[in-house]
Amino acid sequence: MGDLAESEPDRKKIKHQLDEDSLRCKHFVQRKKRFCKMTVGVGKEFCGEHEPTNTLISSDRIVCPLDPKHTISASKLQKHLKICNARPPTQQKAYIVPGINCASSGDEQASPPLTMAAGKKLSEIPVETMAALIAKINTIYDSASPAIKEHSPRHDILEQELTREHYGPQTLKHLTQSSALLGLLDHHGFLQNDTAFIEFGAGKGQVSYWLAKIVVDTQLSHCKVLLVDRASHRHKKDNKIEDREIVQRIRADIADLVLSEIVGSNKQCVGIGKHLCGSATDLALRCLVKSKSANSTFTVKGCLFALCCHHRCEWNTFVGKQFLLANGIGQPEFENIVRMVSWAVCGTGRSRNKKESPDLENEKQDRCGLSRNEREVIGKKCKRILDIARSKYMQQNGYEVYLRYYVTSEITLENVCLVCVEK
Description:
Order of helices and strands: HEEHEEHHEHEHEEHEHEHHHHEE
Oligomer: single chain
Largest sheet: 8 strands, mixed
Helix content: 25-40%
Strand content: 5-15%
Radius of gyration: 26 Å
Number of helices: 12
Number of strands: 12
Distance between the termini: 83 Å
């Protein structure tokens, strides 16, 4: 009887859970590896967002005119337009000027028209064309590639955090990257008084959180940390910073950001970025250069950007077009290069269980006669050529530029950072 009495609460708990589950949406969210947690109406299996298309046609739900990623009830359209998260701001912020950091703003030559060849997949490009482009890539890399040194300092602020045993490999990876970037900030003399530190593409703000702690612990005076991101994130790390006067979030697309409107009274600013995908890096570099050349009341001391996701670079926003054009790389070749960079980091494309032996993999050749290792080398050269082009742009605008391996490849294959220091 005792056992039965003890199990009664468990039975009730299980029954309650089953009843609750029956009210949940039956749509499986692939990205989150779980079922949708929204409740459903009486007699329905799916919430309004995940209702099957054939059912939606017969219902009153329509696609939101502000954001096609979700649907709404047609009868509640006017009410939804007033509260939708995608609605445009009622008043434009002073630091927002649409497209000010894009190449189309007049500070660079107009882009040539896109040819049909540029939109093709690599597999659709003739072998002769691919061979000629690869030969050109090898020539440019051999003549212009700088010696990238390994420089991976660690900042003391994260010393204890990196020793916590309960952290998994992903957490330790990000902490190690943050520690290395902050160590480089210190090494290059960026951690000074009266500085506005701007984290572009801040995300959840891990780098800014530790940077703000450095400002407090080292008693840097009249400093602030600005987090720039176009999206709003949950569980932001910077929310845990007690001194709210030090940190400020700026919701803006880097393409539209006017730096002078957010730096304020600080005499200098420094840009930092841990994960600026592709064209976001170019927009951030142009944002800093525009502020430097605008006779602002502050000095742009430099920046430190971890480079990644070269496959997301775009010709219209890329800052290094002058270098590429001087070396015979136009828009069609550029479009192919940004596809080829994936050869450096995407592995074999096979599951771990189906991978062939290293010897067989290296012997196997693609339609251009390249082995897997040779493709990887070409992909890395493509990435470095894009980074060299960016370096030339910053050198032309008054900066000493360094490319550094800031962490080892065991931590991440995207382990190169761009350091720019005002001359």
